[in-house]
Design brief:
By secondary structure, the chain is α/β, with parallel strands linked by helices. The chain folds into 3 domains: 101 residues, no CATH class; 102 residues; 176 residues, Dna Topoisomerase Vi A Subunit, Chain: A, domain 2 (3-Layer(aba) Sandwich), CATH 3.40.1360. 41% of the residues lie in helices and 13% in strands. It contains 19 helices and 9 strands. A 6-stranded mixed beta sheet has the order 5-4-7-6-8-9. A 3-stranded antiparallel beta sheet has the order 1-3-2.
Length: 395
């Protein structure tokens, strides 16, 4: 026979269905009444063991609305049993009212938060009633969560209203003149955007509303004895500058560069050997998305040196979409064979995909990695001497 605790668990599973019903009622959509709410459960059999049945039934009745005045109600009937004679049987377990339901599953506070939040959104007039109805159903978890302050939802609506009225402000998020703490908009950007006129925008939050973003930058160093960076009268060897400035470096400097090495690991980048007329760029992951429009790259020899794993080849493939002349460096079968003892288990690409834009030899190495349990050699495992020897074959 079902226990009071099991009834609570079953009832709690109905809570979000109840909230969706409440949303429809709030916005005038006629619905069949949610209450009385029947809970389907094992109500026992009158022919069960008599002593155990009486014990379970007494516990169930003692905690029911029939005795306590709230919570689940039991509809009881008297039936005749061949084995146990006349017995009390449960014909139905139900919640008769909203108050009975909420108090029993301990959701009175969350329901109040839910209701007050929807009322604030309605009063903001950011969305039509029809859209608020849809929005509320898709943001149940947000509406139920305990806010960080009593004016949380007022601040959410205030931010959404400001963004609607001040699109393309060219401000950083922290410069927006609203009485919210500096990280409030960043921490709640998805929720705020969902209440704006541009809720369906697929681009970044900043791009959607014309806000300034932290500029992408590129960190690079000269690995040539005779080529210093064009930002100082001293022999500057390394710097980090905004990508837009990198795109238009002084032609006198870029004309000296013949080779560009993009290196994944920071320490390998810092210790990369000297190569005449060359620079080394710290790639650190999928920064290919920012290094995708460097016009002066097209006249250079470009090499990508990533980890010897599936993601390394995926990054190489991404670079090759923009620079068809890019070559892999130390990502070949010889390197795999020499350093295989250092191989560890690495992450596979989502969907077990094979990257596009790989050469026949690169695809062969990728296949070896893909079929190996230990499928990753971190590039810092590769010695400086091996890198120097590999450079001697290409420069």
């Amino acid at each position: 026979m079902v226990s009071p605790e099991e009834i609570k668990t079953k009832a709690a599973r109905k809570y979000k269905d109840f909230l969706r019903y409440e949303i429809d009622m709030l916005f005038g959509k006629p619905e069949e009444s949610f209450f009385p709410l029947t809970i389907r459960a094992d109500t026992g059999n009158v022919n069960d063991d008599l002593l155990q049945r009486q014990k379970d039934l007494q516990s169930l009745i003692a905690k029911s609305k029939n005795k306590t005045g709230s919570g689940y109600a039991l509809e009881l009937e008297t039936v005749q049993s061949r084995r146990n004679g006349e017995q009390t049987s449960i014909s139905r377990i139900l919640f008769e009212t909203k108050d009975d339901f909420l108090s029993f599953i301990n959701e009175n506070k969350s329901y109040k938060r839910f209701y007050n939040a929807i009322e604030l959104v309605k009063e903001s007039h950011l969305l039509s009633n029809e859209k608020i109805c849809e929005w509320s159903k898709s943001h149940l978890n947000d509406l139920l969560s305990e806010p960080e302050s009593s004016h949380y939802w007022s601040d959410i609506c205030l931010c959404a209203e400001w963004l609607n009225k001040n699109q393309d402000s060219k401000l950083y998020i922290r410069e927006i003149p609203l009485p919210v703490h500096t990280k409030f908009i960043e921490q709640n950007s998805k929720l705020i955007q969902s209440l704006t006129e541009k809720s369906d925008s697929a681009v970044s939050f900043e791009d959607t509303f014309g806000l300034k973003t932290k500029p992408c930058s590129v960190r690079f160093r000269s690995i040539s004895e005779k080529v210093s960076l064009p930002f100082s009268t001293t022999n500057l060897s390394e710097c980090q500058i905004p990508i837009k400035d990198f795109e238009c470096l002084d032609k006198e400097f870029s004309d000296q560069i013949k080779n560009i090495f993009i290196v994944e690991n920071e320490m390998v980048y810092l210790t990369f050997p000297k190569v005449p007329n060359s620079i080394c760029i710290w790639g650190h992951g999928y920064t290919v998305n920012s290094l995708n429009n460097i016009e002066w790259f097209n006249s250079k020899r470009i090499y990508y040196f990533g980890d010897l794993d599936e993601h390394g080849f995926d990054i190489l493939s991404s670079y090759r979409r923009f620079y068809s002349n890019i070559q892999s460096f130390c990502m070949d079968n010889d390197t795999w064979n020499k350093y295989q003892e250092y191989a560890v288990e690495g992450k596979k690409l989502d969907g077990n995909k094979i990257p596009e834009n790989l050469t026949i030899d690169e695809k062969a190495v990728f296949t070896i990695l893909h079929n190996s349990l230990k499928n990753r050699i971190e590039q810092e495992r590769i010695s400086v001497k091996y890198i120097k020897d590999s450079l001697s074959h290409i420069i």
